[in-house]
Amino acid sequence: MAFLSSKSSIAAHLRSPFQKTEDPVSLSRRRLHVEPGAREKALLAEDPILNRYKSSKDGVRRLKRLGDVLTIVVVAGCCYEIYAKKFGNRQGLATES
């Protein structure tokens, strides 16, 4: 009997959402637009006091570019050091012999 109840629960999960009845829970799952209330509007309103803490888009873009360039320089330097340690000694040994 437990097998039959598990089959019915699996079938319930596989059913299309359009076959379900229109109850408030299913309406909220479909994310229908609901106008925000007074409290939500107050929370979403622009606050002039916080404007000084907002970063400008140009500054953020420049800082991101600088970080990308520094990352590339550091990786290139590390690759050069590895190459110099691995192959630099061989050339020096060959000329001394």
Structural description of this entry:
The structure is a single chain. The chain is mainly alpha-helical and 97 residues long. It has one domain (17-96). The chain is 68% helix and 0% strand. The protein has helices spanning 2-14, 24-29, 38-44, 57-96. The radius of gyration is 32 Å and the shape is flat. The mean pLDDT is 76.
Which structural class do the helices and strands define?
Answer: mainly alpha
Q: Kindly state the mean pLDDT as a whole number?
A: 76
Helical coverage, percent range: 55-70%
In the residues, how many domains can be counted? 1
Distance between the termini: 87 Å
Low-confidence stretches: none
Strand content: under 5%
Main pleated sheet: none
Instruction: Report the strand count.
Output: 0
- Tell me the series of helices and strands, N- to C-terminal: HHHH
Which helices and strands occur, and which strands form pairs?
Elements (H helix, E strand, L loop, with lengths): L1 H13 L9 H6 L8 H7 L12 H40 L1
List descriptors:
flat, 97 residues, 0% strand, mainly alpha
Short structural description:
This protein has 97 residues and is mainly α.
